[in-house]
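The material for today's practical consists of a large collection of protein records. Read left to right, the backbone structure tokens trace the chain's path through space. An example says more than a description, so a record of this kind follows:
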Amino acid sequence: MTPRPRAILLAAGVCLCTAPATRAQAPASEGPARASAPDPPAQVLRLRGGQALRVRVVESTPEALVVIAEGRRTLIGWERVADVPSLPPEMRTLADDAWRAASRVGRGDYVTAEPLLEELFPAMRGLVGPTPAAVASGLLKCRLARGAVVGAVEPMLALAASRSEGDQSWLPAEPPSISAPGDRLASGLAWDEQLRLSPGVPPMWAPLPSVRAQAQRGDALASGLGDGRGARLAQIYLHALRHEAGLPTRLAPRPDADEGVLLAHDVVAARTGDPPARAAAVVALRARLTPDTPAWTRAWLHAAVGRSMIRELETETKLLGVAELLRVPAQFERDVPYLTGLCLAEAAVTLHQLGEPDAANSLYADLTERFAGHPVLAWDALAPLRAQARRASPAPTEPDDAPTAGGPP
């Protein structure tokens, strides 16, 4: 891979405007500036897919092409731009690369889209606008499609940070995504616009090597995210990762934030806090369970409550926690496959620790049958159940037509 996106950003720093300045500068002999210059001339902007718009181009930045369209300032992601007169070569290259990645994600070709997005992603980190949102969204989908849920944390946080909380006049006026009807990733798994979270990336983990590696990155996970929503989510996710990895960590007090950030905070506090903090978080989580709660959110709530309850000392409370965990595989497997496998694993381990081997072995068999490639299968706590499964599996037998000793091969 070439460092082309980084070069684009450097070039963009000295080549932001693609139209005449909107304000005239008076000669020194004439005193202060007297009047604004005329608006930039109208141009024809061609979008991918054949649509053409008559616009006035204000500026081109790595975040977006900024235009006046129908009297409104509009930010257009570069993955949408096919051509506009006087476009700087650096921006044209960015538009081509972003479009190639978008089209591959749109047809479900995540394997070839991911290298392009991996190249674009570092240059977009920390920027706010439709192009960084599209790149982060695409990379999030690629990593989820191959089951790299821990690796999906970084693009998910970048996507959360790339959304401006003010100006939302983007084109198209829809959630940030580079997808199309051919996208075969489960609907809604990558991003929920209402809570602005990724249903497929809950802040819930087992102590796996990938979790430890991500946790040890520390502040690098939140670098470039500013001090807004993305940074607040990064603090919550990093705390959850470090807790499961056994590293020193502290969860900040419950923030004054939107419902998505509060949901993530309560999910993590229910697992990692002291007993009073866990109890308070569980109360807040249960209060969210209403008939109108989306399926993926209900799955997060049941899983978080269950993971909190199995940390208690009383056997009956642990069993009630197992029941909460098992609501997820019973009702929400299609909505949150990663979380379903995690809940099955935690329920099996808890039952094994409580002296219920038959139930534990049954859940482990269910886990391995339904989620053969799930990362949680590498969890050390499952080792006794793995050994039991190997002992219980029948020895391989010879086929009925196996040659007898001394017979023909």
Residues 89-106 form the longest helix (18 residues).
